[in-house]
Amino acid sequence: ELNDALVAAAPASSAAKGVTASNSIVRWLEIGCGVGNAVMPALKEHACLHVLGFDISTVAINLFAKKAEEEGLSARINICPTNLAEADVPDGFLSRGALSSSTQPSEGDAEGAVDFASIIFVLSAVPQPKHALFLQRSRRLMKAGSVLFFRDYFENDMAQKRFSDENKIDESTYFRVDGTLSHFFSRAELASLFCPANGFELIEDKVVERDVENRKDNSTMHRRWYQGRFRCV
Length: 233
Known about the structure:
By secondary structure, this protein is α/β, with parallel strands linked by helices. The chain is 20% helix and 32% strand.
């Protein structure tokens, strides 16, 4: 479902029109790519697709690279361990692998070479004061008019209600058992983040609500996620 949604978003970018043409190249930026589970099926199905990916885990990046090599897809990926909350992309990264030098912006041009991007359950693990900077660094890799697909935890999700006060940092941010962060967004907060000042404008959004059954303990959790598409401006 996610792969279909992201590939379908590509024609919204002027550079991605004709996505099915054999000579077209569509570049997908996945921030928080992990071991490549989201992008690998799409890479196999769409020969025009090239992937640029980051993850804070070196282990995950190495596993992704190994899987891509085994599937003969290494030439269409460009991945590295990077934490955009702490640093920008490595120098020269856009000129390697899936993004050839012919796609690079001219000197002084802030626009990148990516046609569409995804940030899926990643921003909630970034310290809140760095949310805007994280998005600004992401935006610099994308073309004007390209599309960002975003999904993350939303306020009053059952997972939020299950956190104890001992794990609470503020009204919407908590520490997980493993020490990572879990932030639950509000519409007002997201509107302030995905704004022209940070390089984005809203295309469409919705709150996804779903009851998830846990058969082991015979309980039901009411989950809430925010899902949106944003255009780079």
